[in-house]
Amino acid sequence: MSALKEFLQTICTDSITQYIACFIISMIPLIELRGAIPVAYLFKGMNPEFNLVAGYCIIALGNMLPVPVIFFFARKVLEWGKDKKVIGKFFTFCLEKGHKGGAKLQEKAGRGLFPALALFVGIPVPGTGAWTGTLAASLLDMKFKESILAAMCGVVLAGVIIGLACTLGAGALFGIAG
Cα–Cα distance between 12 and 83 in angstroms, integer? Predict the structure, then answer.
């Protein structure tokens, strides 16, 4: 952790750079908001002028920015690539996995697909998040507006959970580690 802290101190010397770093980190698949919020807390420790509320808003915006693109294009790209020689097996695997996971989610959720998707995006465990949830919504043929709102609710939930974890527990870990 201290190497990360030193690296961030070297390249992110002012608040603007720190906000930009949080924004970019929140857009990275699998890392998303779950990785950007602890970095924001690290910045707050390095720079008392760093505003966590503004950081949260910027992080949520960065996490949600790719969602419409994923909703409208990820499925099309996977379907386009499933017949290609080099990438076909992987793309087919992704489509089949998405369809099976979506069918299970829909079966368990019944008519409550919206809250199920929001919880899927919001519970911060590996493999969940706005990227994965939006792809699942696309594969389930959910409506765009419903998918975006569920992802947004999930991002807010994940932000609260990760923020509490950073405030209550991980803050001590960061202090010990670096």
Answer: 44
User: Using CA atoms, how far apart are residues 123 and 103, in angstroms rounded to an integer?
Assistant: 19
The CA-CA-CA angle for residues 141, 144, 147, to 5°, reads: 85
Q: pTM of whole model > 0.85?
A: no
- Tokens representing 34? 């779950």
Residue 98, both tokens:
């998405």
Please report, as a single letter, which amino acid is at residue 122. G
Per-residue pLDDT tens digits for 57-93: 999 999 999 999 999 998 899 899 999 999 999 889 8
- Where along the chain do its domains lie? 2-63+158-177, 67-155
**Distances from the Cα of 70 to the Cα of 26, 64, 87, 115, 129, angstroms:** 15, 10, 19, 20, 12
